[in-house]
């Protein structure tokens, strides 16, 4: 029988300061020394258990022989000497020779699994070979599940996170059961990502799944179970374009929100669901927080809670709309709203949307690998608990709220995170584009022969001064025109002016009209 051919080389693991940027600077200190074992077109990565700085490593050919070892009279950060580390490298090389000789003598074809297992036996590391990557992953899941059961208030994972990782274990089992940490190369992660895409899972789902795998590998590394760090350099292949441009985000428009508020509902269960949804829309709270909201959480005119998902302490002032909603529910129970499952809640939201007439066609984009599909359905089919939080953020921004104020209520730590919840429809884009129309004022009150009496009533200076002051303030010019038309009794033109203003300015316009009417009545009575 021909002797099995194999090769072994030692190398320093390549690592970059920013694993996600292949152009970032290479790390040159405390690098893992790995053994690459090749045979029959296969390769095993084996961590030697030692690290060294790049400048203390030799990798060159001397008299026709490749020398790969630590330079003499050098030490690593642990204080291990060159002679100690090099002795370990020689021991590994000899062990590899013994393994292949033994397999050859016994007529056993070498595989990744039996070579690794035999090598660990040879190096007295047999215990390490008894647990596969999946067994370690199950250890993590069991640990987090026990935390949830025994100390739920201090558990590191929520129930949803636990479910995600259990699903990942099933995916890995379907991909390959016998995996070891040494197998987790960039090539293997790439194959696993393609495997998930091949199951017709969306890019969005796969992108999150690969992050879950890295979460597990980071834990295993921190616990000392894993010493192969090549996974940190892996760059995911498939991007989700719909996530980057918010294609699939769905938020209610102002008109739809008002329609839902005014909707007459006879069924008590639907009315309850509508109240919970509106409460989420006007607070930015998640369904999980509103579902568990207790009467003790509402005091001194504000909501004071610790959010379930992120454990953030949030205080939200109660306005009249929120007070009106909770006033419908008696303080006989511990919780504010009656109990309902998330699934039932979402089903009833779709029913509400249908009753409210949210029939506009909505397109949901799904990317699976390089294939893009578009699913068209009525808008009500996409009604879910997530819509409320997006509606709050979108509505608040369109109403002129500062991002810092919105984040203080939603609990988002950065503007980038908050903007993931914003849905800018064409009406919103048009509204903001109109704000840029400041180059030229088309017409002012002076184009309508305003009298001195009217000018003084509206608190407008003389023409030259006014035109200079208002040269870049189109909204104010429109507001003055609208008030002039209102004073002259031309309601249609006044309303037309108001409709040209952004939503946030329309409120100020109405307040100015009320003030002007009140002042007119007051002046009439005094006469």
Structural description of this entry:
With 527 residues, the protein is α+β, with helices and mostly antiparallel strands. 48% of the residues lie in helices and 13% in strands. It contains 21 helices and 10 strands. The protein has helices at residues 82-105, 112-122, 133-150, 159-175, 186-198, 203-223, 241-244, 254-262, 268-281, 287-291, 320-326, 342-355, 385-398, 403-410, 415-419, 426-434, 452-457, 463-469, 474-487, 491-499, 503-526; strands at 7-12, 31-39, 42-52, 57-62, 65-70, 298-299, 302-306, 313-317, 361-368, 371-378. Strand 7 (302-306) and strand 8 (313-317) form a beta hairpin. The chain is elongated, with a radius of gyration of 34 Å.
What is the β-strand count?
Answer: 10
Helices and strands: which structural class? alpha+beta
- Which strand order do you get reading across the main beta sheet? 1-2-3
Question: Could you estimate the helical fraction of the residues in percent?
Answer: 40-55%
- Based on CA atoms alone, the radius of gyration comes out at 34 Å
What proportion strand?
Answer: 5-15%
First-to-last CA distance: 122 Å
Low-confidence stretches: 244-248, 435-439
- Form type: elongated
Largest sheet: 3 strands, antiparallel
Query: What's the helix count?
Result: 21
On the 0 to 100 scale, the average pLDDT is 83
């Amino acid at each position: 029988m021909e002797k099995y051919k194999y090769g072994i080389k030692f190398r320093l693991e390549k690592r970059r300061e920013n694993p996600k940027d292949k152009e970032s600077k290479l790390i040159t200190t405390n690098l893992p020394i790995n053994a690459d074992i090749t045979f029959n077109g296969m390769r095993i990565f084996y961590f030697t258990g030692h690290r060294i700085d790049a400048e203390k490593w030799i990798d060159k050919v001397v008299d026709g022989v490749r020398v790969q070892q630590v330079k003499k009279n050098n030490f690593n950060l642990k204080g291990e000497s060159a002679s100690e580390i090099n002795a370990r490298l020689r021991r590994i090389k000899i062990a590899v020779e013994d393994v292949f000789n033994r397999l050859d003598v016994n007529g056993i074809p070498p595989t990744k699994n039996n070579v690794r297992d035999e090598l660990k036996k040879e190096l007295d590391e047999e215990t390490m070979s008894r647990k596969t990557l999946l067994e370690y992953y199950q250890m993590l899941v069991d640990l987090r599940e026990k935390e949830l059961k025994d100390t739920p208030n201090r558990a590191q994972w929520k129930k949803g996170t636990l479910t995600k990782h259990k699903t990942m274990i099933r995916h890995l089992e379907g991909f390959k059961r016998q995996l070891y940490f040494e197998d987790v190369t960039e090539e293997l992660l790439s194959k696993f990502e393609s495997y998930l895409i091949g199951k017709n899972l969306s890019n969005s789902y796969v992108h999150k799944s690969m992050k879950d795998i890295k979460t597990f590998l980071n834990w295993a590394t921190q616990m000392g179970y894993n010493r192969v760090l090549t996974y940190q350099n892996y760059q995911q292949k498939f991007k989700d374009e719909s996530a980057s441009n918010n294609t699939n985000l769905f938020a209610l428009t102002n008109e739809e929100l008002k329609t839902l508020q005014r909707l007459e509902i006879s069924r008590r269960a639907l009315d309850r669901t509508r109240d919970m949804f509106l409460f989420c829309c006007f607070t930015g709270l998640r369904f999980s927080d509103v579902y568990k909201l207790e009467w003790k959480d509402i005091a001194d005119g504000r909501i004071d809670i610790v959010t379930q998902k992120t454990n953030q302490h949030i205080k939200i002032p109660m306005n009249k709309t929120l007070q009106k909603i909770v006033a419908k529910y008696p303080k006989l129970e511990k919780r504010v709203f009656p109990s309902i499952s998330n699934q039932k809640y979402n089903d009833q939201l779709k029913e509400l949307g249908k009753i409210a007439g949210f029939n506009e066609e909505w397109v949901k984009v799904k990317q699976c690998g390089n294939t893009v599909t578009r699913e068209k359905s009525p808008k009500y089919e996409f009604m879910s608990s997530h819509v409320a939080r997006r509606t709050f953020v979108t509505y608040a921004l369109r109403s002129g709220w500062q991002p810092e104020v919105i984040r203080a209520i939603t609990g988002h730590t950065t503007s980038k995170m908050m903007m993931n919840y914003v849905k800018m429809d064409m009406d919103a884009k048009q509204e903001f584009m109109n704000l840029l129309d400041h180059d030229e004022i088309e017409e002012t009150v002076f184009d309508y022969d305003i009298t001195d009496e009217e000018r003084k009533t509206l608190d407008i200076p003389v023409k030259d001064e006014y035109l200079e002051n208002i040269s870049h303030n189109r909204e104010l010019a429109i507001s003055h025109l609208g008030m002039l038309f209102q004073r002259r009794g031309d309601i249609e033109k006044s309303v037309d002016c108001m409709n040209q203003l952004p939503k946030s300015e329309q409120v100020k316009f109405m307040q100015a009209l009320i003030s002007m009417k009140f002042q007119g009545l007051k002046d009439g009575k005094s006469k």
